[in-house]
Amino acid sequence: MKLVTFIKNRKTCIGRLDADGHAVQDLSSIVPEQPGDMLAFIRGASQSLAVAARCEAAWTPIESVELVAPINRPARNIFCVGKNYREHAKEFNASGFDSSAKEVVPERPVIFTKAPSTVIGQGAEIPSYLDYTSSTDYEGELAVVIGLGGRGIAKADAMQHVYGYTIVNDVTARTLQQSHRQWFVGKSIDGFCPMGPTLVTADEIPDPTALRLSTRVNGELRQDAGVSELIFDIPTLIADISRTMTLEPGDLIATGTCAGVGIGFTPPRFLKPGDVVEVEIQPIGVLRNPVA
Asked: In the Cβ-directed half-sphere of 23, how many Cα atoms lie within 13 Å?
């Protein structure tokens, strides 16, 4: 099922898209106490999905609603993974912006987080003007949405805890990322995490390693890689993070970006106002955001 969060008549709703993505069905009645809250829907697990499949609410043309991020206000920070594609790890090391470690390819997952206030949705402007260092960069990524929570999740059981998948653009202020050593400040500027356009449930993506990620800036292909190229795969990430902390329904894990980011060029090709960034992973869709 392709789930979305949208605004219609100034009201935030959760819904699902039809097969061709041309219409949306309002599912807010399934969680009447929190009608616009995707997190409440996710906590309902298979029961919510079963009710959604039987929903007889009217379908609305997608053009008549405004899509926002599927989880437009995460309950907790977004978990992110740094240097999780070999070629990106190499380009990041060579760029001079990596102050995190000596090794080029990490021996263990590099985990950091982004603040919930970074999240914006489809079509929203990336506020590069908030980056006072003028070093705003893009990072297209596949994000995992946790369904069944838990702590100490075994790698063999990890995929049972995946609710679905979405796209994030881990927008980064590179100079702040470098100068602060730890990456939180450079990654957590307001509006620096576009997400969407949909949340696709795990049953529709039985093998996430078969997915392909691409990022275009003003129509120019910058990033293109298979999820199969991850250094640390999804089960490893879930097992590693849950080894020390409890994962909860609706938690997001951005799995890392591939080669082709702005700092991989000489000179770096940072985003500027007027640019348009498109991150594509099918069947999730194309996450498109202009830069302001």
From this structure: 8
Its pTM surpasses 0.85 = yes
The residue behind tokens 């590099």 is: 110
Closest CA to 79 of 248, 226, 203: 248
163-197 burial, b at 16+ Cβ within 10 Å, e below that, comes to: bbbbbbbbbbbbbbbbeeeebeebbbbebbbbbbb
d(CA 6, CA 229): 33
Is residue 240 left, alpha or beta, with left meaning phi > 0 and alpha meaning psi from -120 to 50? alpha
| pLDDT tens figures, 184-228 | 999 999 999 999 999 999 999 999 999 999 999 999 999 999 999
* Residues 14, 16: Cα–Cα separation, whole Å: 7
Tens of pLDDT, residue by residue over 107-153, are 899 999 999 999 999 999 999 999 999 999 999 999 999 999 999 99
pLDDT in tens, 98-108: 766 667 788 89
C-alpha distance from residue 237 to each of 110, 208, 224, 252 (Å): 10, 14, 22, 11
Residue 88: strand pairing partners? none
